Amino acid sequence: MQLTANIQNYHFDHILLNAAGVMCQTTTELDTVLASDYTGAVVTKSATPTLREGNPEPRYFEIPNHLGTINSMGLPNAGFDYYMSYVSEKQTTKPIFFSVAGLSKQDNLDMLHQLQDSDFKGLIELNLSCPNVPGKPQTAYDFETTEQILSEVFTFFTKPLGVKLPPYFDIAHFDMIADILNKFPLAFVNTINSIGNGLVIDEVTDTVVIKPKSGFGGIGGPLVKATALANVRALRQRLNSSIKIIGTGGVTTGRDVYEHILCGADLVEVGSQLAIEGIDVFERLEKELADILTEKGYTTLDDARGQLKTIS
Ligand SMILES: O=C1NC(=O)NC(C(=O)O)N1
After folding, report:
1. SS3 state of residue 28
2. Is 129 in the pocket of ligand 1 (CB under 6 A)?
3. pTM for this structure?
4. 136 by DSSP, 3-state: which?
5. Does 130 participate in catalysis according to the annotation?
6. Overall domain count for the chain
7. Which of 36, 72, 129, 194 is catalytic?
8. pLDDT of residue 1
9. Whole-angstrom Cα distance, residue 225 to residue 231?
10. What domain range is 104 assigned to?
11. Is any atom of ligand 1 closer than 6 Å to the C-beta of 190?
12. What is the predicted ipTM?
């Protein structure tokens, strides 16, 4: 069973990896994901220019009955230089995605200039969708600002760049963001980030379950799968074929991975379920995916990719 993928001249022997933010904050966590026989890559926690503590705890909660997670981490990370030194010293054949999430356009430009001038040979993910920094909007919901940032970035940036998008919920918005993204030589689009500003209530205490933002936080896991699949499908249908798709959101089984592939995903990321189940989730998911592909009569992922059927 051929379970590989490519983005430009990067080859992935497996299509699964972590979602930024999960099992990727420290060198130990990053090494754990890289060392797995069932991951094709690793993505760093979205870096800000300097170390950030993030939001006050409790800031993460697993919703009962396997419904998913809510988080308002607030971009806690060891800072840009920490991840730059990790990727600079790391000897690996597996591609590394370096995720950045500036708190301003200038932050993003500064980090991308440093990456451009560095000898980092992996891929870069510009996170335009963190919902959890109090007072900061999810950038990619502002189409004008998104286009402006990408216009400035591509005056100097020549390394493989992708963007991490929030979920969209309106066909007109799929059209609008795709029109913008198609103007730029992006290597990939990663969709979706968590569904921003959900609210989960503790049924015993009638209290919100996380402290930041009076309980409002990003939703992940099974609760977001339908939205994640819709965003993967809508963007695959609209984006130039040169822009590959990383599907993220709602993956807990091999069937979920398969559905992201049917919608057009090239790589698939695991966030909430990785946080819940741990590193072994990748082996389980890949085996479940392989079984489904065999059952369906596919011998390669390429044959299944984008094969979602509609009702005529
Ligand atoms: O982009 C992000 N998405 C999330 O759901 N949480 C993290 C965070 O809060 O750091 N960032």
Report:
1. helix
2. yes
3. 0.98
4. coil
5. yes
6. 1
7. 129
8. 87
9. 10
10. 5-54+74-194+221-304
11. no
12. 0.98
